[in-house]
């Protein structure tokens, strides 16, 4: 039986393809296989979350929704309900990208568009709290990660229940923790160069990068060492399974 659950929030015509690509990226980043991490694809408003009773932790992938948009569609409301259930389960949870804004909004913070980051590398710096965090022990103070997002938390309105673990010049909030069991990264901790190119191909017209910059971005991706970003997911899985 799988010890961890990967929840993918991908709908629409390409939803299944994106979900499986994302799942494979998580397996590669964590150095685990399908017997250790099970995929739960939330593909539409009727897809149900697998029972969390028997899992040791949950990894939540990205989503093409924007938290700052009005969540009036059945799909958006279902995503809210699924993520609320995940957070309130008490299980260790790791959110990637979309989940950072969702968690901040869920806890009462504001989401803005002041620090979007185009698809590509971003520089991440640990805060003092980050240097003490259980997932980040032995990490360098600065490392590179891959990212791409159009909205971000407003750092001036972060709820007091959140701890900032990592910051960046291009986006002030890069990693946060809620309580002692929920983490979220603005960057994609599961991605390497190949994964980012695949995701760019899926979302070429979603505003994450200018199409004319595609070749330049893809050519530069392998030049960046993102192993420390990937290692955060490894640390999370080890924290969950002991």
From TrEMBL:
Q: Which residues form the Glutamine amidotransferase domain?
A: 40-200
Q: Where are the transmembrane segments?
A: none
Report if keyword Zinc-finger is assigned.
Answer: no
The keyword Protein transport belongs to this UniProt entry's keyword annotation:
no
Q: What InterPro entries does UniProt report for this protein, alphabetically?
A: ChyE-like, Class_I_gatase-like, GATASE
Q: Which GO terms describe its cellular component?
A: cytosol
Identify the keywords attached in UniProt to this record, alphabetized. Answer: Glutamine amidotransferase
Q: What is the superkingdom listed in this entry's lineage?
A: Bacteria
Instruction: List, alphabetically, the PANTHER family matched.
Output: GLUTAMINE AMIDOTRANSFERASE YLR126C-RELATED (PTHR42695)
Query: What protein name does the entry list?
Result: Glutamine amidotransferase
Give the source species: Corynebacterium lipophilum
